[in-house]
Amino acid sequence: MPATASRPLRRDAQRNRERIVEAAREVFATRGFAATLDDVAHHAGVGVGTVYRRFPTKEALVEALFTERIAAMVALAEECLADPSAWDGLTRFMTAACRVHAEDRGLRDAMLSLGMKKRFPEAGDRMETVIVELVARAKAEGTLRPDFDATDVPIIFTMVSDIGGAGPQAYERYLRLVIDGLRVCSRNAPLGDPLTRDEVIVMLSGCVPAVRPRSATAP
Predict the structure, then answer these.
(1) Are 106 and 33 within 8 A, CB to CB?
(2) Distances from the Cα of 40 to the Cαs of 19, 34, 129, 181, in angstroms?
(3) Domains detected in the chain
(4) Domain named HTH tetR-type: which ranges (predicted)?
(5) N or C: which end of the chain has fewer CB within 10 A?
């Protein structure tokens, strides 16, 4: 007999899964990783046990929701790396990332959380590499101030996306202020030393809720 795990979901089970995923997108978009599987079940109009049968942990649901979207953000970053203008490529990526972070707190938490590289290892490694290359390229072009560091990028994303709570477009004003401050200018005041990678990790841990998987036996 074939294993039951290899059988396609029954039609009603598939509908439930689709309903859960759609509800999760909406709940995580507004509440980020602070949302629970109970919140998702309530929003989907199904019992919490139904959610746990499809997604035994919150971690599993996060991976199902954001794997493709994070891959799309990596593809965008790589596209920006190919921009003829290094400055335009860097700022285009930062603008696009801040927009989606402000509009979808779930995606923001997925990309900035400590577990990103564990949950999405290939995308996480590639994203970090491309951001380093975007910054280095703009510095070499002479358009990005030389004391800016790639470790500053997630800090900026965190600060600007937090402003999104004031309204969907609120982040744009402050992102423009930040970007103007990144351009090389004769009046640039020294920034001081950037945070180390470990210091960035500590800072983000206080800003992004952790995903705490629950036992597969929980509902």
Answers:
(1) yes
(2) 10, 11, 34, 40
(3) 10-56 (1.10.10.60), 66-205 (1.10.357.10)
(4) 14-73
(5) N
